[in-house]
Specification:
single chain, 395 residues, 6-stranded parallel β-sheet
Length: 395
């Protein structure tokens, strides 16, 4: 696996694919800088070598050249985070980009305009990729969040750098962290899978059954399993067409000696609202008109024992509707258990949109081993897929 550590960038122009698809408020202020901060170590290393940096990214889903999706809006923030006065090219290919790249001096940073202003980017157009490639000497992919897309700037471009392509430090960290769970894990390994639907997690479940010793199933998925086992789930979310699948998963887990842990009690509510009446009930006896919205205290005690005895932990998906304060306790408590287990020496990887939101919201980000920056990309790796953006560098 070639990384930027294998190259000296002195007097070289590094063309880096970053994921600066950051949220902006109505005044175009960046409201979350974490993706920019995540790319800083890679940029710092290249500048320290005496190289220059050309950053390319997409922002949003523009239809043509819409000003609100221009990367010029994030220049000030990028400059502040990196500590360099960043230059801007108002196009990503053609004369404007070529001139800006040519004039770039060592230790300078240039941001190209939104790649997705061109439909050729998402189409994986070879000619477009070739034009981008002409701007730099070494290609660096540091955009894990887009590694699962076979776009021009993430996968196609690498062919124009047969001996001068590598991963950035963020990509290296992502791949290494995922491999710590999928390939080089210390046992016992526990996967915590939450979220609302079994159908969205089935491929992940099937792929990691061979790699884990314990699997905690939480969130809305719980009720499809409980219903399949003959329980009454009241008005809880439930995929009635996936009951056989749930039983099949339980059967496969048993054959592979994987211990499945499902909540035994839940916080039930009489409506999907933070102000609803609540009661703690047995997960198999939820009254009609009531729905389970969080894991109950007995379930959390059971989960604690599993987490505390684990050496490797993967967390993907919350245990309840954590966006509502009254149903956030299960997710917060689980996060605290994982943080404690990590402090005791376990390796913990958190990934997938809602889990990442939860650890950030509840101040647990620095208390787990690694928080993945790429929701879709991480899920596809967990499903066992080869990501185009990774394959292009390894090829």
């Amino acid at each position: 696996m070639k990384t930027i550590s294998d190259f000296n960038f002195n007097s070289k122009k590094a063309l880096i694919r970053v994921d600066f698809n950051v949220p902006l408020d109505e005044n175009f202020n960046v409201t979350d800088t974490s993706r920019i901060v995540a790319a800083k170590p890679t940029i710092d290393k290249i500048l320290a070598d005496g190289g220059s940096v050309i950053l390319m990214s997409h922002l949003g889903r523009p239809k043509g050249k819409e000003d609100k999706y221009s990367l010029k809006h994030i220049l000030k923030t990028v400059s502040e985070v990196i500590g360099v006065d960043v230059k801007f090219a108002s196009d990503c290919i053609g004369e404007v980009a070529e001139t800006a790249a040519k004039n770039l001096q060592p230790k300078e940073v240039l941001v190209l305009e939104n790649l997705r202003y061109y439909t050729e980017e998402e189409a994986g157009n070879v000619d477009f990729a070739k034009k981008l490639a002409s701007l730099g000497d070494i290609y660096v992919n540091d955009a894990f969040g887009t590694a699962h897309r076979a776009h021009a700037s993430t996968a196609i471009i690498a062919q124009f750098f047969p001996n001068s392509k590598c991963f950035g430090l963020l990509m290296e960290k992502e791949i290494t962290s995922l491999n710590k769970v999928l390939k080089d894990s210390e046992k016992p390994v526990t996967a915590v899978l939450g979220g609302s639907k079994v159908s969205t997690k089935i491929t992940i479940i099937e792929n990691i059954l061979d790699k884990v010793d314990h699997m905690i199933i939480g969130g809305g998925m719980t009720f499809t399993f409980i219903k399949a086992l003959g329980g009454n789930v009241g008005d809880s979310i439930c995929e009635l067409d996936k009951l056989d699948l749930a039983l099949e998963i339980l059967n496969k887990a048993k054959q592979k000696h994987v211990h499945i842990h499902i909540p035994v009690d839940v916080v039930a509510a009489n409506s999907f609202s933070n102000d609803a009446k609540t009661q703690i009930v047995d997960v198999s006896h939820i009254p009609d008109g009531w729905q389970g919205l969080d894991a109950g205290p007995k379930s959390l005690e059971n989960f604690k024992e599993v987490i505390m005895n684990s050496k490797t932990i993967l967390w993907n998906g919350p245990l309840g509707v954590f966006e509502m304060e009254n149903f956030a306790n299960g997710t917060i408590t689980l996060g605290k258990y994982i943080a404690e287990s990590t402090a005791n020496g376990a390796f913990s990887l958190v990934g997938g949109g809602d889990s990442v939101s939860a650890v950030k919201q509840f101040g647990l980000e620095d208390k787990v081993s690694y928080v993945s920056t790429g929701g879709g990309a991480m899920l596809e790796m967990l499903e066992g897929r080869i990501l185009p953006g990774i394959a292009a560098i390894l090829d």
